[in-house]
Write a structure and sequence with these properties.
Chains A, B: Pfam families: GAD (PF02938), tRNA-synt_2 (PF00152), tRNA_anti-codon (PF01336). Two copies of one chain form a homodimer. By secondary structure, chain A is an alpha+beta fold. Chain A contains 16 helices and 23 strands. Among the domains of chain A are: 100 residues, OB fold (Dihydrolipoamide Acetyltransferase, E2P) (Beta Barrel), CATH 2.40.50.140; 124 residues, GAD-like domain (Gyrase A, domain 2), CATH 3.30.1360.30. In chain A, a hairpin with a 4-residue loop joins strand 18 and strand 19.
Chain lengths: 598, 598
């Protein structure tokens, strides 16, 4: 049975039926969350995107035929109900829903669509396996928690747009079918039909186009747009993801940060009621690494890294001396109150340290009586141990963890142990939002595979003026006018001031090991464009998915994307990617060519 | 030379320097439109996105060094200027620009970027060949008219969003990497790396996803999003184009039309100050064809088609009798005041008619003295001629044109002649905006190639209830709940109410000649989804590019797209599509396979 709604008009959403309507007629429409048959009376919880509303069908009010239809109703049927809003009997009030003191006594019912029993219940905090939920995403998306996530996402996108519009930014669309990016991640390619053997690439970001827009005088650009990277997926990655992207002309770092702090403040206040105190703290890259072992530090808790290299220098303990001698360091963190961790737990931390790249983890547990439990103290002089403990502000009951290695390994190991411990100690409150700017990133990093420097951000990132003289002599020392915005240990956005001067750009390419010819081959039209008058400019791009994920307290961006893909970049619902007809490939001048393993 | 702007801060955009600032210091930045050297004084027209501002450099104010720099300035240099706002001498006032009574006397100058001489002048209404303009799109985009177009587009997009937000629509993103569409235009394909031999398709529209969102209870959805069709291009087509897409639940045709009339009214009022009187006129498809020979009629002028079949029936003139006898018709239009067209011009119309598919064009010119000039009157009785002229309301000085053929040819020929004449007679005022809804489209059309009916809109379009009984017996007679919104002869949007009842959907598939198995193969996950409770729903999608094009009075959507593609779907600026490395194709398990012509 599926009746038409001819002549009917919805007058209210379910949860918008309020007390002021008691005694009035309403027409509501939605899905049946639950139906109960209580001796001649049928109760239905009707659901729409606003919430639930109880409907009562009794034979007297709705008549015999209508009542028969009501008895036929099952979960997820779509129905339209006309009826009178009434106050519920006090004993049947449901305090858990906003309409819990009301019900609608139905005088009319149409079954607009029947439904088979869904493969899982439509309910909040579903415990159903994600795989099944994603196969039936259209049912999963009926869950109120996912609906709230989608509504929040809508709100964040639109209040960002409104803020940027008010600030004079122009929403300008850049192409999706564009050119393969040199120096980037792996591109998604799109074969051209007209130009056989040629390919478009889907954009990894609108980077080049937004810089061209600055060069064209648009002054302030933004776009909320899809970007594509064909990389292996992790929990917070998707083949296609959404950026809030912006670029501004005639600006320096502080201008970009200024407008974005105001945007973040508005975003978090208006979307989830969280105050972001301004200015947001800034850490240089070097400070972030030294203090938190990470360029995306989580500032919701302390447990900072402490460099004890000076204290242990020439202490005679081989592990420490070796690391320092090789140009590395010895650093530690103080896991406050973890001095009573059982050995098994400390060993687990040590194993984690090895996974993070360390050769091992040294530790000192401070007993409540002030004595130490440790496997390393015996290698150290007593005053060295005391100095280490003092430097880490060790108190009875604390657990001190150490890593001695090159700095990269030390940062990574302690940075991650710090996070693991914070999770174990439940220091990561999802309702606390700690922002930090990380600035002054290194301009270049050495790529061992390609045996040359590569841009850490991208090849158009502006070096800091005071480091320009190092570009030829000590490129690894040059800091960039690049900045990330980090929230609770997640990089939610990043950007830089761009090079607008041709001489600096040429030096940059030289540092990357490109000849002028190679540079033109790779970045031709952008370099050509830069001949015709370039304003100083810079920008920033946010990962919208991640921002909304953090706002929702979700652990996966799949919870804030309507139709996400899974780890193998497929969609369990549509079964994309799929096979196509031979004719389609012929038109595109391509052939499938799967390399068989022999 | 490229100086930094360290320590400088722009205080105003160029055209925002107003009279109230006379006597104040300002700092402005922008591009040099023009530089004139008038005996020891350098004048510069400085340009930013707001407009022009005159800068005066005199040695006394700026000093010797600064003046030397000023002399060095050329067109398109990017400069920053500090100076005092002054009133111009009356004889140098430029009434053509808003800042024409002012100038800034520079006390500071920095050359932020030099510029080579661009390949064409940056000026409004450029006469430069489009090919060159698109190669240097970043310079073309500096032209004030293109900048206005982009700003208008920004405004239209954002006021549409704000309107839809206010109406409770949710902005929900749908995937770009999805599945190849059966029954659609040609897809752009994206090879999958993880699933060798499998392909994503870029969406031709979010149609299926938006219907799923309705099924998921989102109630009102919208998105301004890119869509992709790999078709041969025309002036108003691009490989990627932008839709304002929406879908609503629990609605019928009038609801969708209602919300969209309000949107159109707001859009045109707020963006370009044009009042759209509501309700917008509605024409059924049949009326549109009968009166204008087109399903996208231009209502800016009359010249309607008139059916004279009844009048000429059995008139003895073979051409007329033959057409009517074969089930066709004889129809005419009255080109008012064109009775004095020279024979050459009338013959040109006849040739055009043949191009539009007619075997020929009959005509009667009415001389000022009431006599006729015509090649056909001699075949007709005098009273038949008089009746024809009367039916077309022919007056002295008019030119009557006729076509006799099957209806399809008659509509197409006269519909197009009507437009050609209107253009010649300059009846197509770009500042007049005439909207019309075309409704009640045929549900199906017969496809001769596939020897079956295909959906005119798409296979989920709802038939009109009163025609449902014809679906099995006379499918070509069934009208659909489909509607287009037409502006000045351009379809700017279209949509339909969708089928939400399984039994009707099955009948629809049967009419399309699909077995149940075939239907599931093609539309599997959507049909599965429809088992679980579907609300009545419908929607509409606008072509944003076309709307903005019409608002701008442009003839091409390339004028309202920042980085458009040309006819062969390539981008002259980026040279996309391009070749890629062999390794990239290997990773995607594909091989280029160009069929050589032998």
């Amino acid at each position: 049975m599926s009746e038409s709604m001819a002549g009917l008009k919805r007058t209210r959403y379910c949860a918008n039926v309020g007390e002021e309507l008691i005694g009035s007629q309403v027409t509501v429409m939605g899905w049946v969350q639950k139906r109960r048959d209580l001796g001649g009376v049928v109760f239905v919880d009707l659901r729409d995107r606003t919430g639930l509303l109880q409907i009562v069908f009794d034979m007297e009010t709705i008549g015999a035929e209508g009542f028969k239809k009501a008895e036929h109703i099952r979960s997820e049927f779509v129905i339209a109900v006309e009826g009178m809003v009434e106050k519920r009997d006090p004993e049947t009030v449901n305090p858990n829903i906003p309409t819990g003191i009301l019900e609608v006594r139905a005088s009319g019912l149409r079954i607009l669509s029947e439904a088979e029993t869904p493969p899982f219940m439509i309910e909040e905090n579903s415990k159903v396996k994600e795989e099944l939920r994603l196969k039936y995403r259209y049912l999963d998306l009926r869950r109120p928690d996912l609906q709230r996530n989608m509504m929040l996402r809508h709100q964040v996108a639109n209040l960002s747009r409104n803020f940027l519009n008010d600030q004079g930014f122009l929403d300008i669309e850049t192409p999706m079918l564009t050119k393969s990016t040199p120096e980037g991640a792996r591109d998604y390619l799109v074969p051209s039909r007209v130009h056989g053997g040629h390919f478009y690439a889907l954009p990894q970001s609108p980077q080049i186009f937004k810089q061209l827009l600055m060069l064209s005088g648009y002054d302030k650009y933004y776009q909320i747009t899809k970007c594509f990277r064909d990389e292996d997926l992790r929990a917070d990655r998707q083949p296609e993801f959404t950026q809030i992207d912006m670029e501004l002309s005639f600006v320096d770092v502080d201008d970009v940060i200024g407008v974005n702090e105001a945007l973040l403040q508005k975003m978090f206040k208006d979307a989830i009621g969280v105050e972001v105190p301004l200015p947001i703290e800034r850490l240089t890259y070097q400070d972030a690494m030294d203090r938190f072992g990470s360029d995306k530090p989580d500032l919701r808790f302390g447990m900072e890294l402490v460099d004890v290299s000076d204290v242990v220098r020439d202490c005679g303990f081989k592990v420490f001396d070796g690391a320092i001698g090789a140009g590395g360091s010895v650093r530690g963190i103080n896991a406050k109150g973890c001095g009573d961790f059982p050995r098994r737990q400390i060993d687990a931390l040590g194993e984690a340290a090895v996974e993070y790249g360390a050769k091992g983890m040294a530790w000192i547990a401070i007993n409540e009586d002030g004595t130490y439990k440790s496997a390393i103290t015996k290698f150290l002089r007593e005053e060295t141990v005391e100095a280490i403990v003092a430097k880490l502000e060790g108190k009875p009951g604390d657990l001190l963890l150490f890593c001695a290695d090159n700095n990269e390994v030390v940062y990574n190991t302690l940075g991650n142990l710090r996070l693991d411990l914070a999770e174990k100690l439940e220091l990561l409150d999802k309702n606390t939002f700690k922002f930090v700017w990380v600035t002054d990133f290194p301009l270049l990093e050495y790529n061992k595979e390609h045996k040359r420097y590569v841009a850490k951000h991208h090849p158009f990132t502006m070096p800091m003026e005071e480091d320009l003289h190092l570009l030829e002599t000590a490129p690894e020392m040059v800091r960039a006018k690049a900045y990330d915005i980090v929230l609770n240990g997640n990089e939610i956005g990043g950007g830089s001031i761009r090079i607008h001067q041709r001489d600096i750009q040429e030096k940059m390419f030289a540092a990357l090991g490109f000849s002028k010819e190679e540079a033109y081959e790779r970045f031709g039209f952008l370099l050509n464009a830069f001949k015709y008058g370039v304003p100083p400019h810079g920008g920033l791009a946010y990962g919208l998915d991640r921002i909304v994920m953090l706002m929702c307290g979700s652990d996966s961006i799949r919870e804030v994307i309507a139709f996400p893909k899974i780890k193998d970049a497929s969609c369990p619902m549509t079964e994309a990617p799929g096979t196509v007809e031979k004719k389609q490939l012929e038109e595109l001048s391509i052939k499938v060519d799967i390399l068989e393993l022999t």
